[in-house]
């Protein structure tokens, strides 16, 4: 089912709710309330209820949510119930770490293919995934891969994004610190770790900060 006019913020919170529900279920819990789920994942109960309301009735007032049903429902909304394969472009330090990251399996996601321009890496396996030459990227659609992950240097990221789109990819997770343009119908999410870290000093008490002058840092 395709849901329309749902805020992006709501969609981004659904995997968080799913992770919390899975945690409770794996602990033997069968039913939970919005309050208990909210306390576990660090949001307000009203936010959970509001987000769920976009998709219809989830629980019973005064009774809560049946976790098995809740997990199944969120999986269907996010289309995780069928599993999805992703292609990783860039098998450097970041790309290798992504291949090793076990958290994708929680959501039924798999990095099924990896590509790089470095001939020394091509033909080798990283965490069980064969590293292929970047020229093989165009065959992704035939392999049922419709998600892409970009972990290449900034100057190559736009070209890689275009290659992924041309290969039939409909969703891209970009780790390159650059604004990328993709065609309509393709969803792009950029994660800039350095930029997010750069926001943190604003919240650090002034007495704990340090002043930088050129290449020198003084307390």
Quick tags:
alpha/beta; Arc Repressor Mutant, subunit A; 7 helices; two-stranded antiparallel ribbon; 11 strands; disordered C terminus; 219 residues; Rossmann fold; 2 domains
Structural features, described:
The chain has 2 domains: 8-77, Winged helix-like DNA-binding domain superfamily/Winged helix DNA-binding domain (Arc Repressor Mutant, subunit A, Orthogonal Bundle); 84-193, Rossmann fold. 34% of the residues lie in helices and 20% in strands. It contains 7 helices and 11 strands. Helix 5 (93-100) links the parallel strand 3 and strand 4 (109-116). Helix 1 (8-26) packs antiparallel against helix 4 (67-77) and helix 2 crosses helix 3 (45-53). The longest helix is centred in the N-terminal third of the chain and has 19 residues, at 8-26. It starts with 7 loop residues before the first helix and ends with a strand. Mean pLDDT is 90; it is low at 213-219.
Write a compact overview of the structure shown.
This protein has about 220 residues and is α/β, with parallel strands linked by helices. Helices cover about 35% and strands about 20% of the residues. Helix 1 packs antiparallel against helix 4.
CATH class category label of the largest domain? Alpha Beta
N-end to C-end Cα span: 56 Å
CATH-derived architecture of the largest domain: 3-Layer(aba) Sandwich
* Order of H and E elements: HEHHEHEHEEEEHEEHEE
Would you spell out the secondary-structure blueprint of this structure?
Layout: H1 8-26, E1 31-32, H2 34-41, H3 45-53, E2 65-66, H4 67-77, E3 84-89, H5 93-100, E4 109-116, E5 125-126, E6 129-133, E7 147-150, H6 154-166, E8 171-174, E9 187-190, H7 193-199, E10 211-213, E11 216-218
Parallel strand pairs: 3-4, 3-7, 4-6, 7-8, 8-9
Antiparallel strand pairs: 1-2, 5-6, 10-11
Helix pairs in contact: 1-4, 2-3
């Amino acid at each position: 089912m395709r849901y329309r006019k749902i805020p992006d913020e709501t969609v981004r919170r659904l995997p968080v709710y799913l992770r919390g529900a899975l945690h409770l279920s794996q602990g033997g819990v069968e039913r939970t309330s919005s309050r208990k789920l909210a306390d576990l994942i660090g949001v307000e109960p009203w936010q959970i209820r509001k987000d769920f309301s976009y998709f219809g009735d989830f629980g019973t007032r005064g009774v809560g949510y049946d976790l098995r049903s809740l997990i199944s429902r969120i999986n269907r909304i996010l289309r995780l119930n069928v599993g999805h394969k992703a292609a990783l472009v860039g098998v450097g330090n970041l790309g290798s770490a992504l291949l090793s990251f076990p958290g994708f399996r929680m959501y039924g996601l798999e990095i099924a293919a990896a590509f790089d321009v470095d001939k020394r890496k091509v033909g080798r396996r990283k965490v069980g995934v064969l590293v292929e030459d970047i020229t093989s990227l165009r065959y992704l659609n035939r392999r049922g891969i419709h998600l892409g992950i970009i972990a290449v240097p900034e100057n190559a990221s736009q070209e890689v994004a275009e290659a992924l789109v041309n290969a039939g990819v409909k969703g891209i997770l970009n780790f390159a610190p650059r604004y990328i343009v993709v065609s309509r119908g393709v969803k792009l999410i950029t994660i800039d770790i350095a930029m997010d870290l750069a926001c943190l000093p604003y919240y650090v008490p002034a007495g704990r900060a340090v002043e930088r002058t050129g290449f020198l840092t003084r307390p």
